[in-house]
Design goal:
alpha+beta, Beta Polymerase, domain 2, Methane Monooxygenase Hydroxylase, Chain G, domain 1
């Protein structure tokens, strides 16, 4: 049934509300106002889907009143600093997932809080996150799968969150490859070394965001106590597989960065050693004329060589000979 034949007015745009629609048999029935969500969600075969972006406390309380959401879940949704988790409140689920995007060359993190219960799915986004309009478009393009209800919508959102980790990993992969090539061909600048350290730290944060979702999806797949349709549970195994692949890619990148960081340190130490050897070699060469000049600079009155006609030439020649011999030997050993 099309939304224009329901007789309902088009809902006004409300700050914090990205989308609020009701579906039946896989098709959108109407775009609704938040204050109509409760009535629609209680109708058999209807699912209310609401998308919120950094909502105010007042807006969350209105959604809570309409859908009878648990106060503790609402309290968590108000705070954008939750660890990924799954909590059950009666027949309803509350899920927290971390999101990630590359913003101005840095990995920025956000959160998505998902409320799932009979007749409704509510997503609350905080921070860096891609719009879930793509998820709605995909679902609406295939009414057969959308007709599976709340569980399938939850799967689609989690799958979308996990899929969006891949562009982040691929962006970091390109930068890591460039830095790794630099390590193999030249000594890295300090700014590049700092970037290596920052990438390792950001990848560690990304892994901490990704890893807990494995447990969340595992519980959705296997826990019989959760209000998940048994036929839908295998879908979450696919999400788990995607998360594990992302984890493997992150671990591989962190190992490459560790190697690049260590290689950069070793290259710096090798360069310092080379400079030290070069300075030591020149110091040894210059020590010869310094020592001879020191001897003849003592100003003793009775020195046999002082009155020898060829003494100066012999001394200078001896100095040059010894210095040349030292220079050749140091060049042979790679010190110069």
């Amino acid at each position: 049934m099309d939304k224009f034949v329901t007789g309902l007015p088009e809902p006004a745009n409300e700050p914090g509300v990205i989308a609020a629609s009701v579906y039946a048999l896989g098709r959108r029935v109407a775009d609704i106002a938040i204050d109509e969500a409760g009535r629609w969600s209680r109708q058999d075969g209807h699912v209310v889907v609401i998308g919120l972006l950094e909502p105010s406390q007042e807006l969350l309380r209105r959604v809570q009143a309409q859908l009878d959401l648990h106060p503790l879940a609402i309290e968590d949704a108000e705070k954008a600093h939750q660890h990924p988790k799954l909590e059950q409140y009666g027949d309803a689920l509350f899920i927290v997932a971390r999101t990630a995007q590359v913003v101005e060359g840095r990995i920025s993190f956000g959160e998505t809080h998902i409320f799932v219960g009979r007749g409704y799915v509510v997503s609350v986004r905080h921070g860096a996150s891609s719009s879930y309009a793509t998820v709605r478009e995909r679902l609406e393009a295939c009414p057969t799968v959308l007709a599976r209800g709340e569980d399938y919508i939850l799967y689609a959102i989690l799958d979308f969150i996990v899929d969006n980790y891949m562009p982040v990993v691929e962006t970091v992969q390109g930068e890591v490859d460039e830095l790794e090539d630099g390590v193999l061909h030249r000594m890295l600048h300090q700014t590049e070394v700092d970037r290596l350290y920052m990438l390792r730290r950001e990848l560690l944060r990304l892994r901490k965001s990704v890893a807990p979702l494995v447990d969340v999806c595992h519980r959705l797949e296997h826990a019989e106590a959760l209000p998940i349709d048994p036929q839908m549970q295998p879908l979450f195994r696919d999400v788990t597989d995607h998360i594990r692949r992302v984890q493997e890619d992150i671990d591989s990148l962190r190992e490459v960065l560790a190697f690049a960081f260590e290689a950069s340190l070793m290259a710096g130490q090798a360069q310092q050693n080379a400079i030290t050897r070069r300075l030591a070699a020149w110091a040894a060469i210059l020590a010869v004329p310094t020592a001879v000049a020191g001897i003849y600079g003592m100003n003793f009155e009775h020195m046999p060589e002082l009155k020898w006609t060829y003494g100066y030439y012999v001394v200078v020649g001896g100095i040059l000979s010894v210095c040349t011999l030292l220079y050749v030997r140091f060049r042979h050993y790679g010190w110069l």
